[in-house]
Amino acid sequence: MGAVDARLGSRLAQLRAEHGWSLGELAERSGVSRSTLSRAERAEISPTAALLNRLCAVYGRTMSQLLSEVEAAPAPVVRADAQPVWQDRPSGFVRRSISPPHPALRGELVEARLDAGADIAYDRPPVAGLEQHLWVLEGALEVTAQDTVHRLGSGDCLRMRVWGPTRFRCAAAEGVRYLLAVVRP
Can you give the pLDDT at residue 159? Predict the structure, then answer.
């Protein structure tokens, strides 16, 4: 595992300690097994996007907030070569934090890529009522939110508030690249 996974594991353990929860209590709240939580905290595994989403929901933060907590303090200008990239290799998801979150700001920009056939389901938003603006830059994407399926192609933009489960499925043979503007409520 890499240095980011080690810092992420340490931060996850710290968050659990701050809440005074045992691994069992966190497992009940998140729906993630104790062994998986323990392995993630010890950086024995690299957490998947779905796992991080469940933990973010329990801790009331966005994935970008959590990932920014394991990076250096954000600067006002983030050069392209310094923008943090996180990958969930098994699911074919790559996430680049273009404008990392900042405590004084509610919005952030994320570039995302999904490989052809990638299908990621989140059982809940990391923060209820999270505002998202998703703009497809290349390829095609199918987004399911509140039981409505949205089929998006290059140039299309979906605006939504996320209250329940969502699903992102790459509907393009060559993969999809999109920009996500996230605004905390």
Answer: 97
In one letter, which amino acid is 43?
A
Low-confidence ranges of the chain (pLDDT < 50): none
pTM value?
Answer: 0.66
Would you state the pLDDT for residue 77?
A: 84
Count other Cβ atoms within 10 Å, centred on residue 181: 17
Residues whose CB falls within 8 Å of the CB of residue 182, separated by 6 or more in sequence, listed in order:
62, 64, 107, 108, 109, 110, 130, 131, 132
Matching residue, tokens 């209820």:
128
Give the per-residue pLDDT at 1. Answer: 59
Map the chain to HEC letters. Answer: CCHHHHHHHHHHHHHHHHHCCCHHHHHHHHCCCHHHHHHHHCCCCCCCHHHHHHHHHHHCCCHHHHHHCCCCCCCCCCCHHHCCEEEEHHHCEEEEEEECCCCCCCEEEEEEEECCCCEEEECCCCCCCEEEEEEEEECCEEEEECCEEEEECCCCEEEEEECCCEEEEECCCCCEEEEEEEECC
pLDDT of amino acid 180? 97
> Phi-psi bin for 105: left (phi > 0), alpha (psi -120 to 50), beta?
beta
